[in-house]
Amino acid sequence: MRLLIARPMTAAVEARACAEFDVEIRGSTTPLTSDDMFRALTEFDVVVPTLGDQFSAQIFAAVPTPRCKLLANFGVGYNHIDVAAARNVGVAVTNTPGAVTDATADIAMTLLLSTTRRAGEGERLVRSGHWQGWHPTQMLGQHVTGKRVGIVGMGRIGQAIARRCHFGFGMQVAYQSRSPKNVDFPADFIPDLKALAAQVDFLVLAVPGGAETRHLINASVLEAMNPSGLLINIARGEVVDEAALIAALQSGQIAGAGLDVYEFEPAVPQALCDMENVTLLPHLGTATEEVRTDMGHMALDNVAAFVVGRPLPNPV
Ligand code: NAP
Q1: How many domains does one find in the chain?
Q2: Could you tell me the pTM of the whole model?
Q3: Greatest CA span in the chain, whole angstroms?
């Protein structure tokens, strides 16, 4: 059984992979190329791919009888894998749900607080040496406590964000997802996205990526938001029409944005970099040592189950 891991992992995960499997761990931190994916499917039994590895229908069409039988994705989001095309050629796909939830919710709150309280701008001011000292109207931001938050995608991460907003900041929570949820705190289900956008101060995105949610946040949703409204995206870049977001920010239709993900990642439009009212993070959602180790163990648990023919713990 030959295993390919598509990126360097934490030391704990690499140690386990080397102890348990005949593994090749790719040294590069960049996504697999088409040639890499062809080799992955033809020379290995299991592959641990991750974000950016575009296992498209085309790739599977080029390898109709792959040696590889499992893509044990490192990450909960798997919109970079055409799961139906994989299934058609006998390749199963698993992911790492749960391990990422709290860390990603924390990054949503980081973006929300940084954007409302102008933390990025303030940090840049201090570092520039141009700060002239405290005064009563210096760099006034938006208060967070008691405000209204709208969560788009009330799944594991959406609910973890909502909990933080309700219990930590006394916020009123409303949400949109495909179905209403039972949660142990007040949260209004508002199935219409524009209606939700219109009645909240902060709209926070936590849906999966993929064809179904591409450009879910478009010009008309942004238009429905309040001029003081903020958009926070920890989901996937493609969920937002980035050109429409830039236009809405430039015209003052919305007040700001906090982004962890980008439509054409890792390219970030200069227009966004030029705006002080936008917080930009380099896809840090799950970036802690502990969480990346948990994710790696979860991916390897799926590999281990596959090897001995047990049911896969996290099939998608
Ligand atoms: P999850 O538990 O499956 O939750 C997804 C939620 O989105 C569900 O509530 C689902 O609604 C809702 N949804 C799905 N399609 C929708 C649609 N078309 N319209 C409205 N709502 C829709 O997933 P999760 O674990 O919370 O993760 C969510 C996503 O976060 C991942 O897929 C990934 O892309 C992203 N993520 C980003 C980072 C980062 O580093 N920034 C880290 C981890 C995850 P129902 O429950 O009603 O079906």
Answers
A1: 2
A2: 0.96
A3: 69
